[in-house]
Amino acid sequence: MIKVVLDAFGGDNCPGCNIDGAINALKEKDDLKVILTGDENILNEELKKRGFSSDRLEIVNAPEVISLDESPVSAVRKKKESSLVKGIVMVKEGEADAFVSAGSSGAVLAGGQLLLGRLPGVQRPPLGTLIPTAKGVSFFLDMGANVDAKAEWLLQFAKMGSIYMKNVEGLDNPTVKLVNIGLEDEKGNALTKEVNELLKNDETINYQGYCEAREVPHGTADVIVADAFTGNAMIKMFEGTAGLFLTTMKKAFKDNLISKIGALLVMKSMKKALKPYDVSNYGGAPLLGVKGVMIKCHGNSKEKEIKNSVIQAYVFAKSKTNDIIAKAFEKV
Amino acid sequence: MIKVVLDAFGGDNCPGCNIDGAINALKEKDDLKVILTGDENILNEELKKRGFSSDRLEIVNAPEVISLDESPVSAVRKKKESSLVKGIVMVKEGEADAFVSAGSSGAVLAGGQLLLGRLPGVQRPPLGTLIPTAKGVSFFLDMGANVDAKAEWLLQFAKMGSIYMKNVEGLDNPTVKLVNIGLEDEKGNALTKEVNELLKNDETINYQGYCEAREVPHGTADVIVADAFTGNAMIKMFEGTAGLFLTTMKKAFKDNLISKIGALLVMKSMKKALKPYDVSNYGGAPLLGVKGVMIKCHGNSKEKEIKNSVIQAYVFAKSKTNDIIAKAFEKV
pTM for this structure? Predict the structure, then answer.
């Protein structure tokens, strides 16, 4: 049985969407147990409303909540009875295999680093994210955990990303590229030039050289590596541009009577074409290199993203990917 | 009379689209003269084909061409008879007011820095670009000239960007934001924290604080400042994501008979809604802070972008924006 703790009081749509996501994940996997952390009275009430009960769904009372405007580090240190801290501590103490939260990014990162700690040999834990591309999905890291990164950290991110894609996503020999402002060897800043050399000389990864940001949405590699500042800016630009396009398309559809009729006719095909780009299909962002499985969902996650993140955490834990990462870094 | 030199042999669609762009720019502005640099036999032939002649269109023979795979610095130094170098030298020697090219970015940047040189007080010339947003257009810089930037350079970029938007685009008191991975003061890397303090303490610019990349397509400020590595990655992510969306939309339209009929009905409204996001409306990327006006167009520019870039160069030169920049930096 794989035990996944879900922070029932993290995210904009908690606890309702979190509970629904947990229930639907349980329906998909028979050897999954979900532990909800949060105010037990509210959670019991909500479960009762849904008429759902299962011996694979447990509630652990954690009445405190960490809000988005709190300092993450002090919140993690002080709020021992929060749904977030209590969940992470269960992983730390071996009472659960994985932790999932749509709560404060800062608190999830701080909790992972302070409470779980790093796997031996890991210098910094990167936050990865699965981004939908024209060819499927790429694993992009680091997208927010370590600004002012050092070259060796990025080499480690490439290794951990490759292991993740192989073991959690089931890819054979995943390709790796490094984000740069051009493809020629002499292009780039001091960091990318140094990382490029390290990646070239590492035989454990399938390094394919530089890529430009433009190629990322087209699925240029399975693992895309960047420092957290660049990575965060790129992922947010991806989200911002996609959002702008959807708004513009909707505006065009509503423009006049003819466009409204056209929109009705094209809608089914449009939904089908856009479906692979729905990020909620792919779960959340794993924090790699910590002693435990941690998945951070978008703050605005609904039932589907929560469900997929719980299943992602389940696969991550079941595949013992962290043991494989630990073994790979042991040799370094 | 404002004299703009156009590199007739730069870009994927040269010289045809370049000549057409020049002719159409001349039709829009009566006090504009365009000087085409390139192989005079070919250019005369092409003009003859178009049956166009004007005393405001001059040809200067420059039979060499700088290709994309040449080392920019050595090409600029050696190929004195190239359409690119000859054009820039005309600006340097006061025979023309501005230079426009869709040729090699590296050669344009190298030419601007090596041949024209920096305005007094300017530490590094940034490459800016006008990006279409939900609210109109933002001026984004640096998008490729200076990686491993220093904080003072970014302060200068903010100043030059503000002066450009005021004098070339006619904006009153343009707002400035700095790209960061979060909005709180403690967020960011070492560079952004340092730049943030410099920007806050500069009274000549209308600084509005940090922005996240996600907000840029929505038009969060008139001037957006970033180091060239982040900026280049963001702009290319914007282009890559926009390209992916257009491809996906076209795929949906062609999906089946019903969607094809729907597409026909919605097409006019869609084109209208997408029109403001056509980058060719806004001309090219100005290299600021050099002794002369330089505009770099996209390599794949067609007639419209060339025409708009020539007009942009004309306005840039006519507004004497470089004199204003020089004056602002004199005091520093």
Answer: 0.91
